[in-house]
Amino acid sequence: MLGVFITCILFVLFGQLTVRKLRKKPEVKDKLGIEFASGWDILNVASALCRPKWMDNRYKKSRLSGLAANAEVLYQHTTLFDRILARIFWYSYVMSGSGLILMLILNLLGVFD
């Protein structure tokens, strides 16, 4: 649960420090991907900054490319600190989410009884 708490803090920090700055720039505002729910663009930006280059090229060719954030534009308008914060947040988000799902499965299997 501590990992989830730290991830929540990183979510707010990344949203306030990086994504808020990107939303204010007109050339980047439309490149943050689709926001299905409030704050979804924060996840889009973090995942785009953590995606490998070869995978980013596959996203561009896809019909669903408008759903994800454009990594090339984001790299031009972010600093090294923003990218490091994105990676720390994204990998803690993935690890804490995967850990919670794993614990749920183990609990359903009766490992913790």
From TrEMBL:
Spans traversing the lipid bilayer: 88-112
Source species, domain of life: Bacteria
Q: State the UniProt keywords alphabetically.
A: Membrane, Transmembrane, Transmembrane helix
User: Per its record, how is this protein called by name?
Assistant: Uncharacterized protein
Per the UniProt record, the source organism is Bowmanella yangjiangensis
